[in-house]
Prior knowledge:
The chain has strands at 2-7, 15-17, 21-26, 32-36, 47-50, 55-57, 68-76, 79-88. Strand 7 and strand 8 (79-88) form a beta hairpin. It is an all-beta fold. It is globular. The strands form two sheets. Strands 2-8-7-4-5 form a five-stranded mixed beta sheet, with no helix packed on it. Strands 1-3-6 form a three-stranded mixed beta sheet, with no helix packed on it.
Amino acid sequence: MADKRVIVGLFPDVIVLTSVDQAEWVAPSATLRVEFDPHRCPFSSNVLQAPAGMRLLSGPPAVGAKPGSYKYRVALNDVVIGTGEVLIRE
């Protein structure tokens, strides 16, 4: 399984994943939360959280997740700082 790393503060426009990839977010000095729309999320949970300095892994896309674009919000210490997009490919 390959990880696609996102260093918070340096957002890529789009993270491209296949069914065997997972996204990884890193925030060295703050609590990190990544939140997808609860009705449209490619992962097993729509809210992913990690304490400061820990890697946050999405896990692979859930079985049955359709290829497409999925938007998310990123918060540091409960303050939304940006948005991103995950693109799931077949």
